[in-house]
Structure prediction request, 377 residues.
Amino acid sequence: SVSAFLLNRSSDLAISPVLEFGTTCLSMNYVKESNGEIYADSEYLDTETVGNNEIVYTATKSLFGGILNPTKKYKMYYTVSDSIPPLIIWSWDNAVLARGSEFDINDLIAYGDNADPTPLLSVDGNVNMEEIGKYPLHAKVTDSSGNVTECDINVEVTDELPPYEDTTERTEFADFASAYKANDRSFGIDVSAWQDEIDFKAVKKSGCEFVIIRIGYTGDGDIKIDKTFSRNFQAARAAGLRTGVYLYSTDTTEEQVRNAADWIIETLGGENLDFPVAFDREDFDNFQDYGMSLHELNKLYDAFADELSKAGYGCMLYGSRNHLEKIWDDTDIRPVWLAHYTEKTDYKGPYMLWQASCTGRIPGISGDVDMDILYNN
Prediction:
């Protein structure tokens, strides 16, 4: 702790704490006592830049009944360190590639770092795409603080690629709702232009209680409306379904996501929603190409939610179990829409919605549809 006294000869405080990157640290927590009033230049210490930093405290004291109010400034120096290694979001452990095709290691691995927007990937081993064979690779991801994460990737070059066969069983919505039926649950779907024409009256008649509709998608600040949104939104409301919206985003700056939130507000035109607006960020196949840290990614959600709140709209975070556990922060306080395609999820965090299947079938929609459970507690 820091003791700040007006009569100290030195204007610099001896304490020099070492703080972990991204932690929340109240500036006044480092002030132990003062024989006057003391104020910090900022409420929180800046822990978003690795390295040395400083903060200025101003101490004042009223003397002789307020005739004199001497002040003195103090600096506290502190260091922000990063001890968390990079995250390998996914890697293709046993990749099978066609001979003669182009090889790019970034097609076999996705990675990011909590603090460093551009961690370095290095690979031991080589792949000869002109020769059939098996090639072991060892990948190493290093951040600017020297933290390292490693993994093995095995590549097989062949003339015969294994055929893709979709063996996933389709589930009827009525069977889905029956299997998970309970007093605290409602059942619904989420849709986009992928579902094309939808008969929402038939959907409602089949027992569906709500629908979450893609309003649009964004990337690099470019915003496009889902071509079926207006039709879907109006028809779902007319059918008596509870409705919400989601935005699919690959934006990379706070300005871009705030603009997207403003666009949603304008597009909705004051319409009330039955759910918070969902922030759908699921493109992590080549996260390293975005050139941002995981900390910066999390701030995008916060900025999006903050902008929506100005118009009275709530926000929720859509994510897979893997991404919610490894990439997103504060999932215990952010409303979560969980995506996990399994009969019984083992996700440990709280969630308000569970997208349990992407291969549902329901009258009124031709083809697959996502099926969701809403927990009403």
Observations:
- The CA atoms of residues 272 and 312 lie 9 Å apart.
